[in-house]
Specification:
two-stranded parallel ribbon; two-stranded antiparallel sheet; globular; 29% helix
Length: 244
Amino acid sequence: MFSVQICNVPPEFPDGLTGFRAMPTDRAIDWGRFIDIDIRPTDGDDTAKKRRLQFAYRIDTSLVNPLANLPPAVAGDAPHSLAGRNLVRSLRLGLPSGQRVARAMRLVPLDDKEILIGKATGEAVPINDRSLGLGKVFEDNCPLWAYILAEAMHHAEEIRVPVKEKVKVLTPKLGPVGGRIVAEVFLGILFGDPSSYLNVCPAWTPEIGAEYALRDFVRFALGQDSPHAAESRPGVAFGAVTEK
């Protein structure tokens, strides 16, 4: 159902997708690759490397090869594709379709011709395209997971890449259905945690106001100054990278 993009797995990490084990002491997460907590130079001089700093792939309805062929340690029984497993799981849980959820949110759902299956780079086709061989089962009945991914493909936004060079990319972002579900999950966790700020100090607001973002939470967890605090100290520039 979903197109596959080949992604080579380094031979030194044969079980890189399995998880559920202790983190080796010689490995660490470079959060700057996931969250824009600092400003770095690009990885090289060629055009491709200037346009991305090991970013994640665009949000779309395609899968990289490892997720389309999960290892036995993760998926011992069929289907071995993450897409297939998500479809089976949603069916067993009785999840509503993306269109039904959109209507429940009082939104106009995407038309079948707007639900594209494939890569966000322009190689996708509508879910009702005959080449997919899906029949009529998905007519106005797109699985919620696929709907959220397809919805994001219609909500692209130009953003500044967190590198020293002035580079911008057009990238899909979660739409109204997917964005609300993700936001409500986070809010539900915060409200359900008796030690969260929403319960311990409900009147708390960040000192820097509405500009406080996910990167600021990560920087706080890492023991780093916020951009404003760093800028206030002489000789310290936000985004400076420590050489290792």
